[in-house]
Structure formats: C-alpha cells, structure tokens
Amino acid sequence: MKKLLTRSLVCAVLGMSTLAVAQDAAPEAPKEPVKAPSADAVRDTWNYFYKGQGQGPVLVEAKLCTEVAKEGPNKYECTAEVGAEGVKANTSVMLWQAYLVPQGDSVEDVMVQTKQGTVVRETKDVKLKGDGWRARQWTGVRLNKPGNWTVTVMRGDQVLKELQVKVQ
Questions:
Q1: pLDDT score of 16 more than 60
Q2: How much is the pTM?
C-alpha cells in the first residue's frame, strides 16, 4: 500500500512539474500568414511551368544584395539587401534574381547590364534552366565609381527590370 501511494505521489509530482514547465515556456512566435494564391493563379503557373517551353523565363523578383546565404534555412536567398542610401564604391554587390522557367527549358539570352549614368560599364550573360519551380541566380556587378548607377535585367532588347543604386 505504501509503495502504491509513493508511486502515485511521484506520478502526480512529475505530471504537475511538466505542466508547470510547459506554462513557463515562452509561447512560440506566431508565424506570419502567407496569402494563398487564387486557384486560377496556381493553374496558370502549372500550365506555364509544364507547357510553356520556348516562351522564356518570367522574372519574379530581382534585388541588389551584399550577401546571399550559402547554407541554412535561407539558403540561396538575399539576406542583406542594398538600402536606399546605396553603397560605397567597390562594395561587393550581387543582383539576386528569381525566375519561373518552363520545365526542361534552357535560357541563354538573359543579360545583366550596369550603367553609370548613360555609360554602359558592364554586361554579363545569365544562363537559366527549368529544373524546378524557382530558378535563382545571383550575378556579381561592379560598381566601382561614385555616382548614380542603373542595373538592368534584359532579355534580348526587352527590359525585364531596372534597379537604381547610388554609389558613394
């Protein structure tokens, strides 16, 4: 009987202690809800990915970054974006890009061009492959002189995106 009472008391204490610990633990930060796309948007994306071969990439996002994560939960994401204040000359800067490329396609006519004022300083080719839902690419750009610069993503002579950056 004494043994049964001792076991019951130990179980009760252990049960209450885990409950107390659970109450003392800080609650997890709520995750920010992500907007669900419409059914039509999902269908259009599926159709383009699976049946849009030969139509070229869709540039979804482009931003100037000083850092792209190489590992961890943000792997291949821009983790330090260039702010409105710009950058100092000769700072290592990348144009981070995310595309939707139709499955199986290879695209070799995308370029990143840097201009200081109206003078083209550099043009680099970007090669993309439709291996998955999102093709990410980061292209190093040289911003080596103070002034106003434009970084442009182009496909042939079509401008896909232009970003302005101030270099000090």
A1: no
A2: 0.77
